[in-house]
Amino acid sequence: MKSRTGELPLKLVQTTPKWLLISTPIALLALLAGGGTLWWNSVSAPASGDPNAQTIQIQVKPGASAQAIGQELEAKGVIKSQLAWKLWTNWQARQGKGSPQKGTYEIAPNQPLTAVAAQILEGKVIQSGFTIREGWNIKQMGEYFEKQGLFKAADFVAVAYKVPAETITPEGVVTQMLKQFEQVALPEYQKAAATNKLTLLEWVSLSSIVEKEAVVAEERARIAGVFTTRLAKNMRLESDPTVEYGLGIKQTADRPLTFAEVKRPNPYNTYMNAGIPPGPIASPGIGSLKAVLNPDSTDLLFFVAKYDGTHIFSKTLSEHVAATQAIRRQRQAGQK
């Protein structure tokens, strides 16, 4: 019975057994503990019971909060409860397990919440597959990645010589390329350490020129031999692709390089500068990398491209000039 003021009569409060006042919180805690376990087991269980459930892509942006990530995971059916997600990730942070890592994830909804959290806290992002063609320069690579919808070409070019990072980002792609280089090409360089006098950068840079010059694979070692011989004689490499790269142009049969372009200074112009350029002009393939480490031993000093992609090689400048003129006459005769 209540008084007019809505309060319990003092007599009733005084006659409440003391053991009940003490035991109620204990009983309540016990009840909550039991119910909490049941609740946790339910909300942390896989969102899907299908063992063949398709993965769902999740993009974690830099600085994203655990709550925001949980909301997206719940909305996309990856987890059952964003509250459970928040509780678990907070607990993991207190245990020193880290915080959500930015990147793109492929997450299966048929795994428990704890497994989903581990994937994101440990940064187990997806690896984007891509193919870099041998001979591409950095600009061409950037354009390719932009067409693939990964990121802007300018962003890739800006970090092309830097290293850290994660997943489908310019930095991540460069890292992946460097790892591939380390696994496939670097062992070749190390095997040739006893005879090779080129630095790592010189090796890759010279190989990139061979890559651009050699249309036919069988000519790579011979072209590398010509360049090696010219370097030994302190002759300039005089390679057209280095001029093209430095000027950002591409010559064709109908539009060859002009004398003015060949004489225009830039750091990569091997007509104007002695030695090997300061960096690669393209992505060299393993064939060109091996050719530079194992060039033909030759006294050939010149070569000129024919219109089928092969070359005429010469020992002297007069032979080279004659070969060049013969090729031009063939082209002119073909146009008539």
Task: Give a written overview of the molecule.
With 336 residues, this protein is mostly helical. Among the domains are: 52-94 and 117-124, no CATH class; 138-183, no CATH class; 198-335, no CATH class. Helices cover 50% and strands 5% of the residues. The chain contains 15 helices and four strands. It has helices at residues 10-14, 18-43, 66-75, 82-94, 113-121, 138-147, 153-159, 170-184, 186-191, 200-213, 220-232, 240-247, 259-262, 286-293, 317-335, and strands at 56-60, 103-107, 302-305, 311-314. It has a two-stranded antiparallel sheet. Strand 3 and strand 4 (311-314) form a beta hairpin. Helix 4 (82-94) crosses helix 5 (113-121) and helix 10 crosses helix 11 (220-232). The protein is elongated. The N and C termini lie far apart (118 Å).
So how many helices? 15
Q: pLDDT below 50 for ≥5 consecutive residues: which ranges?
A: 1-32, 161-168
Oligomer: single chain
Mean pLDDT: 79
Strand content: 5-15%
Number of strands: 4
Cα Rg:
34 Å
Distance between the termini: 118 Å
Given the helix and strand composition, which structural class is it?
A: mainly alpha
The backbone outline, from C-alpha atoms, is elongated
**H/E topology pattern:** HHEHHEHHHHHHHHHHEEH
**For the report, how would you describe the main beta sheet?**
2 strands, antiparallel
Proportion in helices: 40-55%
Identify the strand order in the major beta sheet: 1-2
Family: Belongs to the transglycosylase MltG family.
Keywords: Cell membrane, Cell wall biogenesis/degradation, Lyase, Membrane, Transmembrane, Transmembrane helix
Function: Functions as a peptidoglycan terminase that cleaves nascent peptidoglycan strands endolytically to terminate their elongation.
InterPro entries: MLTG-like
